[in-house]
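Here is the promised in-class demo. Please do not try to memorize the tokens; focus on the logic of going from shape to residues.
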């Protein structure tokens, strides 16, 4: 009889709902597979269970950014930054979002803040969001705002050598990385 009770107790304990921290992990796993519907469900479940508001909202911010739901993405990233102004995964997302929505000055401010906090930042859940690519984005956004010196500084960091502040030279370098046709 004790064995049966023990087995029933074991079955009940092992069939309990997934630990709430697992939902964020499942969300990021789905995000990496570009399964944004599952990612959204898991991040929302994490929020409803009281899991880390910062992580879950960051995930939702990134999902919305990938789906180009910019207003929803901005809302989620702002929730995160109101909770933790130094949360780099949200800063990188909002920096990209501002660049995609042609708010280049805002993008440069956010991405500069990101690199002040972590000069080698790369996003763990998207292999395209690397230090190099974010610095290229920053160089492009500085170029588009007419700040050629700061654009050249970012290119110098990427290339490991000084770069001309001449706008035509910057445009050529950006083009060599596949960014815009500024000539």
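The designed amino acids, position by position:
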């Amino acid at each position: 009889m004790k064995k049966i009770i023990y087995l029933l107790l074991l079955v009940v304990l092992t069939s309990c709902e997934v630990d709430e921290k697992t939902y964020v992990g499942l969300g990021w796993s789905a995000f990496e597979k570009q399964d944004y519907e599952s990612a959204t469900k898991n991040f929302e479940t994490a929020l409803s269970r009281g899991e880390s508001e910062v992580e879950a909202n960051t995930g939702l911010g990134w999902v919305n950014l990938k789906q180009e739901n910019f207003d929803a993405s901005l809302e989620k990233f702002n929730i995160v930054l109101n909770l933790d102004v130094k949360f780099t995964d949200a800063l990188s997302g909002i920096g990209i979002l501002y660049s995609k929505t042609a708010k280049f000055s805002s993008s440069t401010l956010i991405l500069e803040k990101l690199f002040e906090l972590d000069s080698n930042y790369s996003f763990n859940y998207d292999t395209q969001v690397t230090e190099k690519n974010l610095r290229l984005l920053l160089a492009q956004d500085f170029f588009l705002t007419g700040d050629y010196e700061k654009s050249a500084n970012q290119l110098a960091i990427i290339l490991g050598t000084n770069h001309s502040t001449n706008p035509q030279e910057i445009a050529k370098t950006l083009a060599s990385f596949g960014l815009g046709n500024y000539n």
